[in-house]
TrEMBL record:
Gene3D superfamilies: NADH Oxidase. Residues 193-216 are annotated as: Disordered. Pfam families: Nitroreductase. PANTHER family: MALONIC SEMIALDEHYDE REDUCTASE RUTE-RELATED. This is 3-hydroxypropanoate dehydrogenase. Residues 40-193 form the Nitroreductase domain. GO terms for molecular function: oxidoreductase activity.
Length: 216
């Protein structure tokens, strides 16, 4: 079988494993969501509308979560005033791009997501009791909100937009500033917009399938 070397790794893998035609999604969609999609550091001035945000959420809300709990909550910052409240909590390298992005989202986990489980997970009414312990619930909220953030990044790309996720911020500070209710934890900041020129330098190498996948 022909092999190809994954750029930058020196690891060869069978070409068949990388063949895009083994996937059900057409090639253009694969490229839009993954191969051609880049993390954006610069954006055009084109606004991101509430209708686009709703269309993205309407798609990604079908991504699975444990107990169907859906703990992700999204706070959109559009006004200069709301952006100014966020900037001091960002690491210095993340400030300029966040100040200039058309839309910035604070992605948070609802640590009391279990309160909706009788509606969202009706065939296991006891699930709410399993999550009565706050520490266990917070872990579930973080884990599943993180999964939903992954879906959201792909959803942003499905709308032809680019995402700039950032973990470089003071999460405790952002939680206190924007979620004084005590039931949400800030997980990630994400800029969203139409990608500007030279979004983030050269594409970095990715691990090859044999480096990541083993079969026992
Ligand atoms: C969870 C997460 C946190 C990140 N945090 C930052 C950050 O704080 N600052 C930054 O400039 N880039 C950040 N990035 C961007 C990554 O470095 C970037 O997605 C990665 O290098 C892949 O780039 P590419 O999508 O252009 O190939 C983050 C990405 C993710 C997914």
């Amino acid at each position: 079988m022909t092999t190809v070397e994954h750029p930058g790794t020196g690891v060869a893998e069978p070409r068949a494993l990388r063949a895009p035609d083994l996937l059900a999604l057409d090639r253009a969609a694969q490229d839009l969501l993954f191969r051609e999609a880049r993390t954006a550091d610069t954006f055009t001035d084109e606004p991101v509308t509430d209708a686009q945000v709703a269309a993205i959420h309407d798609l990604i809300r079908y991504g699975p979560t444990a107990y169907n709990g859906q703990p992700l909550r999204v706070l959109l910052l559009r006004s200069p005033e709301s952006r100014a409240r966020l900037l001091p909590y960002l690491s210095s390298g993340n400030r300029a791009k966040t100040a200039s992005a058309p839309l910035t989202a604070i992605l948070a986990a609802d640590v009391d997501f279990h309160q909706r489980l009788s509606e969202l997970y009706p065939y296991r009414p006891q699930a709410r009791d399993w999550l009565a312990d706050r520490a266990a619930r917070v872990e579930q909220a973080r884990f599943n909100a993180t999964l939903q953030i992954g879906y959201l990044i792909v959803g942003v790309r499905a709308a032809g937009l680019a995402a700039g996720p950032m973990a470089g911020f003071d999460a405790t500070g952002v939680t206190g500033e924007f979620f004084p209710d005590g039931r949400h934890e800030a997980m990630l900041i994400m800029n969203v917009g139409r990608s500007g020129p030279d979004p983030s330098g050269d594409r970095l190498p990715r691990l090859s399938t044999p480096e990541v996948v083993r079969t026992l």
